[in-house]
Structures are given as C-alpha cells and as structure tokens.
C-alpha cells in the first residue's frame, strides 16, 4: 500500500533500527507520544541451555527476546551463577522459551532459581589465631587478633587495620586481609558467603625470620572462622533473616 489513514492497521517487515514502543513518523512532522508504561516482571525462572550449542547462542537469543518484549527481563545472578529470566507469569516464560526454540533454535529448560543464601553475625566477637610450624630450617609464624562487628544489612564487608606500634609489620596487613576475604567466602554455619561484617585487625606478633605473607594469610583466615563461630552466626537471604519455624 502507498499510505495508511487514521484507523488503518498495517505491518512493515524487517525494520532494523526500531524497537517495541517506537513511533514511526516523517522527519518534517514528528509525532511525540508518551512512552508506554510496561508492568514490572513478577515471576522468575532460571534458564539452563540444553546443549553446548544452545549455550553459545543463548545470550543473543535472550537479548533479542527482551528487545521485542519489554516485559521480559534478563539478569545474571552472580551468587548462584545462573541466568534469570523474569516475566509476567509462568505461561509468559514458557511462551518465551518456546519462541527461543522456534525463532532462534535455542533449546532451554526453565527451573526454579537457586536461593542465594548468605551468612552474617549478630553480636560482636573477638578471635585470635597463631599459625606456627617448625620442621627444620625456616619455620612458619603468623599471629593475629581480630575484632568482628555486625553491620546493617546490605553493607557488605569492611576490613580495617588498627595495628599500632609495629606489632604486625605493615607489609603483612594485605595478607591478613586476603585471608579474611577468602575465609568469608564460606561461612561456618552452612558454607554460604559471609556479608555485613566489619573486621578489624588490632594486634598480633611476628617472627623476623619465620613470618611471611602466607603465614599471615592463614592466620587471618583461621581467626575469622573462630570469630564467626563466636558471633552467633545466622543465615539470611538478601537481608532477610532465616530462623527456625516450629509451627
């Protein structure tokens, strides 16, 4: 057809620079129209490709789907390493999965997302750990004292150096911090990452010959684990406490 009048419905194929919600008009007569307010997604599923070939094409397919349908949203859940597809309901996501197979040749399974649990502490705690080994020749020695303090939800983790008087040489403090951060990846309650705590290293001792970065890294990690056990650890999910329910 050469033209469409008011009330007519037409279709134009293979438009490459438009997306859902765009208005088509001439340059000399622009017709700005208020943007469409799409509903927020209310249902989530984890997307798992069926084969390695499907995995290679999954990113492009999901990107195209979300461009065509703004009510679909895609994100990567870093804590569980899953790709999450969000939509308006279970049927909506099932239709999207069928469309991925039909239009892009990508087969996927939709599954309930894994819950990204976290751990934290509820009371302040102190802990000490001395890493000491002597097997002939140079030994191993690292000794640290830590203070742990719970932080408000969503604060993450903080590390503070409060050592004075050279009790631990400054060049060993980064090793202590590294040990603390690595140990915090697996909490003492159920092995989930530890969040929302402030860790202070405030004292320790060293040996001029036997101390090294690895010794203070080990001491920092073990001291943190001891402190977590003493801090009344709890599990939580995105800031919500998980406690036993005996109803």
Account of the 3D structure:
- This protein has 247 residues and is of the alpha+beta class.
- The protein folds into 2 domains: 43-114, 2-Layer Sandwich (Alpha-Beta Plaits), CATH 3.30.70.870; 119-237, 2-Layer Sandwich (Ribosomal Protein S5, domain 2), CATH 3.30.230.
- It contains 4 helices and 11 strands.
- Strands 2-3-1-4 form a 4-stranded antiparallel sheet.
- A hairpin with a 4-residue loop joins strand 2 (73-77) and strand 3 (82-87).
- Helix 1 crosses helix 2 and helix 3 (173-183) packs across helix 4 (213-230).
- The radius of gyration is 28 Å and the shape is elongated.
- Residues 242-247 have low confidence and may be disordered.
- Keywords: GTP-binding, Nucleotide-binding.
- This is Translation elongation factor EFG/EF2 domain-containing protein.
- It comes from marine sediment metagenome.
- One of its GO terms (molecular function) is translation elongation factor activity.
- Residues 114-232 form the Translation elongation factor EFG/EF2 domain.
Give the tags.
4 helices, disordered C terminus, Alpha-Beta Plaits, alpha+beta, Ribosomal Protein S5, domain 2, 247 residues, 11 strands, elongated, 27% strand, 4-stranded mixed β-sheet, 4-stranded antiparallel β-sheet, 2 domains
Shape estimate: elongated
Total number of helical segments? 4
Distance between the termini: 68 Å
CATH C-level label of the largest domain: Alpha Beta
Order of helices and strands: EHEEHEEEEEHEHEE
> What is the name of the CATH topology of the largest domain?
Ribosomal Protein S5, domain 2
Radius of gyration: 28 Å
Q: Unreliable segments (pLDDT under 50, ≥5 consecutive)?
A: 242-247
Helix-residue proportion: 10-25%
Name the average pLDDT: 90
In total, how many domains does the architecture comprise? Answer: 2
Please indicate the percent range of residues in DSSP E strands (runs of 2 or more).
25-35%
Structural class: alpha+beta
Strand order of the largest sheet: 2-3-1-4
Number of strands: 11
In the CATH hierarchy, what is the architecture of the largest domain at level 2? 2-Layer Sandwich
Report on the biggest sheet.
4 strands, antiparallel
